[in-house]
Amino acid sequence: MSLVLDRPATADVPLPPPGPRRLTGLQFLLPLFSVTVLLAVPAAVFVAPVVARGSVSVGVAAVLFAVSVVYCALRLGSLMWEAEPRWAVLGLWMFSYAWLAVAGLTQTLAGENPLGFTLGDLATEQAALLLAGLICFDVASRVRPRRAGALLPAALDARLRGRVLDPTRVLLLGVVALVTAPVLVALLGGPGVLLSDRQAVFDQLSSSGLYSSASNATGGMVAVIGNVLPFVALICLVKLLADDPEQRRRAEVWALGAALVALNALMNNPLSNPRYWAFAIVLAFFFCWRFSTRPAVLTTFVTLFTLSSLIIFPYLDHFRVSEAQMKQYGIRTPSYSQPVDYVLGKTDYASISDVGVALRVVDHHGHTLGRQLLGAATFWVPRSLWPDKPDNTAFLIADEIGFPNRNLDSPLWAEGYVDFGWLGACGLLALGGLAARRLDDAFVAHRGARTRVVPLVAVAAPVIAGYEFILIRGSLLQAMARIVVLLVLLLLVSRVPRTAARHAAVRSHLTGSPQ
C-alpha cells in the first residue's frame, strides 16, 4: 500500500522547499550597500536641492517623514538580507519608500505639493498616519500563522494551495485571447489608437457610447478584458514552457506564445495604458523568473527599481501626455530640470498629498462609515441599478480642493481613513500585511520545486504582487475590476490534480480522518 501512496506523491507534489539561505561575502554586503544608497540618494537628489532654495519648513511632520524614509530603507534592507522572494511584502515597502515617504519629506520641507494646496495643522497628522500604517503592516506581515492559510477555512485553503496549471486550459485560454482579439481591438479603436495614447482610447470609447456621462462601466470592462485576457494567457504559457519539458517540444505552443507576445504588445503597451498596469505586467514576469530569487539579483532589483521610481518614472510621461493635455487637466507644468521638480509638481507623486486631503475630507464631511469600501467591493453593480453608488475616493479628494483632474490617487491610508479614521487606515494596512505574508509564504514554499506540474501559486503570487502597486496606490474602486478578472482567469486555467486528490482520499480512509 505504501508504494501506491508514494509514487503519485512524487509525481504531483512539489519537493520540499530549500532551507533558509545563508548570505556570505559579497551577497552579505550588497544589502548594506543598498540601504546606504537608499538613504543617500534622497538626501542628495531631493533634500539638498530643497535646502539650497532656502525657506525650508522643518517641523514635526518633516521629522516623521524622515523617520518613515529610514524605516522603509531599513525594512527593505532586512528583507534583502533574508534573501527570500517575498515580493508582496517588498512591494509595499518599495512603494511607500518612493511615493509616500521620500515624496512626503521633500514636499513638506519645500512647503509645496503637486496639488497646490496647504495642509496646515493636518500636516503632522498626515505624516503620523503614514508611519502608523507602516508599523501596522510591518507587525502583521511578521505574524506567522499556527496553520497555513489562517485567513481561509482549512478545506478551501488546501484546495487553493493544491491547484496546478492545466496545460490544456492554458492553451485554450490563449486561443480564446487570439480569437476575441479582433473584436476587442475594434471596440478600442484599432491598432492606430492603441499605439497612440490614452486620450485617443478614451475618445474612441466615448464616441462609440461605451463611455457616457452616466457610466463608464461598459467601456471600462471592455478595456479590462482586453488587457487581462492576453496577459494571463501569456504568463501562464510562459511558465509552462519554463517548467514543463513536454510543452517545450511542441511547435504549436511556441507559435501560440509568439502570437500572444504580439497581442500583448498591442493591448498592454505603456502608451495607451496606465504606466502602473504596464509595470504590473513587467513585474509579474520578473517575479516568475527563476533567477530573480537569487540574492544578488533580488538586491539589485529592489535598489534599482526603487530609485528608478523617483528618478526615471516621471520622465515617461513625455511619451504619453502632451503639454496641451497637461494644461487641460490642471497638471502643473513648472520647469522640470531635475527630479525634485517632478516630486514637487507632478501628480505622479501626489499620493501622500491625497492622504492629507482625505484628512480634510473627514474634517469637513465626517467619516463615510464603510460606504467607500462597500463601493469598491460592489464595483460590478452598475449605477443604473444603484444611482447613489459611492464614487471613487479619489473623486472626493479632488472635489474637496476643487482640483480639475479627478483622476488622482487614493492610497490605502486614505481609503481606510475616510471610512473609519485611524482605526480604518491601520486596520486596512494590517490586513494587507497578513495577506502579503500568506501569499509570500505560499510562493516561497514552492520555490525551487522541480515537478512536471506548475503550482497555481507559482503564477498567482507574482501576478498579485505585481498588481499590488495599483491596489496600494488606489483608488480601490478603480483597481478592483482588473484584480477580480485576473483571479477568475487564473482559477479557470488551473485544477486540483486528480492523483493528488486520490492520494489524499486514500490517506483519509486509512487514518479515519475526515477529508
UniProtKB/TrEMBL annotation:
The keyword Transmembrane helix applies. The chain crosses the membrane at residues 28-52, 58-76, 88-110, 122-140, 170-194, 214-241, 276-292, 297-316, 451-470, 476-493. The keyword Transmembrane helix applies. Keywords: Membrane, Transmembrane, Transmembrane helix. This is Oligosaccharide repeat unit polymerase. It comes from Actinomycetospora corticicola. The lineage of its organism: Bacteria, Bacillati, Actinomycetota, Actinomycetes, Pseudonocardiales.
